[in-house]
Amino acid sequence: MKSSSFNELKKQLRQKQNFEKAKILQRFFKTGPGEYGEGDVFLGIIVPELRKLAKVYILLDFPDLTRLLQSPIHEERMLSLLILMQKYQKNADSQTTCYQFYVDHKAYINNWDLVDVSAPHIIGHYLFDRDASILLRWAKSRHLWTKRIAMISTFHFIREHEFDNALKIAELLLNDQHDLIHKAVGWMLREIGKRDILIEKQFLDQHHVLMPRTMLRYAIEKFDEKERLFYLFKQ
Question: Which of 32, 42, 142, 149 would be a feasible disulfide site paired with 22, CB 3.0-4.6 Å?
Answer without folding.
Answer: 42
